[in-house]
Structure formats: C-alpha cells, structure tokens
Amino acid sequence: MAGVAENLIEIRDEIAAACVKAGRAREDVHLIAVSKTFPVESIHEAVKAGQTVFGESKLQEAEPKVRALPASLEWHFIGRVQRNKVRKILQISSVIHAIDSLKLADHVSKVALESARRPRLYLQVNLAGELSKGGFSPDELRHDLKDILSLPGVEIIGLMTIPPADDDCENSRKWFSGLRLLRDELEKEFHVSLPFLSMGMSGDFQIAIEEGATHVRVGSAIFGKRVYRVDGELG
Ligand SMILES: *Cc1c(COP(=O)(O)O)cnc(C)c1O
Predict the structure, then answer these.
(1) CATH class held by domain 4-223
(2) How far is CA 104 from CA 6, 76, 150, in A?
(3) Tens digit of each residue's pLDDT (9 = 90 or more) over 93-112
(4) Radius of gyration (C-alpha) of the chain in whole angstroms
(5) How many CB atoms lie within 10 A of CB 169?
(6) pLDDT band at 227 (very low <50, low <70, confident <90, very high)
(7) Phi, psi at residue 214, to the nearest 5°?
(8) Of 2, 165, 206, 232, most Cβ neighbours within 10 A?
C-alpha cells in the first residue's frame, strides 16, 4: 500500500484529469481529506504533503485530533449532527455537511448566534429515499428552504448527498446529476445562490466532478483501508 503522500498526489492527479474531462476549472474543485478512524500520524503525513482541509464525522474522535494538529487546518464536520453536540462541533469546525432538517438548522443557527460564530452549512439531500440515511427529500427541501434561508446565524452554501452504495460507480452518476439539477431549480425558485455541491467519495469522486461537485470527500483512497468497529458502524 502506497503512503499517504503518494496517494494524495495520485488523487490530485485524478481530480485534475476529471476537471479536464469535464471542461471545468481545477480551482473550482476542492479536496476534503476524510480522516475519520485514521490516527493523527496519518493526518500529519497529509499535512506535510500540503493538505489543509480535513473531514471528521464524530465529535469525540475529532476533538483530540483537532487539538493535536496545527491550528491552521480547516475541519469539516461530515457526520450526523446530534443536537446536544452542536456547541462543541462549532468549536472545532466551521463547515457542517449533513444538516438534514429545518429543526436542526434552526438549532445550529441559535447556538451559533450564542457562540458568536457563523458556520457554513450544506443541506443533505436523500435523493434515493434510503431509510438508513439522513437528509431532506427534494420535496421537504422545497418546502423548508425559505425558512432555512432566513435563519440569521448560519450561511447556507450548498447541497450534499451520499448516493446509495454500489459496486459500479457509474450508478452514482444519476444521483450526482440529480443533486446538481435540484440545486439549479432551487436557485431559480428561491433567488438564492447555492454555489457548492459536496458529493463524491473514494469510489466515485471523478464522476461526481463530471457532474458538478465542488467539494469531494475522499477518505480511504488517501489514508488506506478503514478498520470497521465491532458494531459494524463506520467510525
Ligand atoms: C466516510 C465518509 C466519506 C469518505 O468515504 P471514503 O469512501 O473512505 O472516501 C465521505 N463522506 C462521508 C459523509 C463519510 O462519512
């Protein structure tokens, strides 16, 4: 298995190639290195190789890592957000990717105002209607977006999705294009700019880029195979 630095070089090359293929500017696509379940030493290697943006999905795991690493790094919270952890999440990350209800967005806004922070939020969309995943259905989002956009404590920067797991990455394409089309529709209907699309992981980020991703969340392709916990849940 190649090291983190080599993997990063390869991923960056693949991102650049996907941008060329899609006729997109390279600087419009950002790599979030998903470091959940991987140790601080691996993150150090990525930092040495020039990576500055990382994604974590559990507060308890992220807090000590953030403390142990340079303050200049940017941490995105990509996991499910529990209400009682919002205050602490805002202390370590300025961007949250999985806002999945008006109630949660409202709560984050209130906590943010109390904490004098203004986090940037992605609204997670569950396009396939999978019961195992969070996220707005497109209709819920159409219904709630006006209220969400009026929340004073947060900035809504775009949409995020996690397509159904599939061995054939081409099958992710329709979900990625679906998220882009939904974004285009909402921008028109609500006269708002939702510039960012957080979509694409290790197995399908090239396709996500072809379909408009601005932020790809790549973990195992950089850090190696993830070790599953005993209960089978991803860390
Ligand atoms: C774990 C995770 C990723 C990264 O997955 P890889 O397949 O390891 O690239 C991306 N997004 C979310 C929300 C995740 O939980």
Answers:
(1) alpha beta
(2) 39, 17, 14
(3) 999 999 999 999 999 999 99
(4) 17
(5) 17
(6) confident
(7) -105, -20
(8) 206
Where in the chain are the domains? 4-223
Closest ligand 1 atom number to CA of residue 98: 13
Tens-place pLDDT, residues 15-74: 999 999 999 999 999 999 999 999 999 999 999 999 999 999 999 999 999 999 999 999
Q: What distance lies between CA 7 and its chain's CA centroid?
A: 20
Probe target for ligand 1 pocket from 14, 197, 201, 234, with the most ligand atoms within 8 Å of CB: 201
Q: What is the pTM of this model?
A: 0.96
Question: What tens digit of pLDDT does each residue of 184-193 get?
Answer: 999 999 999 9
For 111, the enclosing helix (H) or strand (E) is helix 102-114
Ligand 1 neighbourhood includes 219 CB (under 6 angstroms): yes
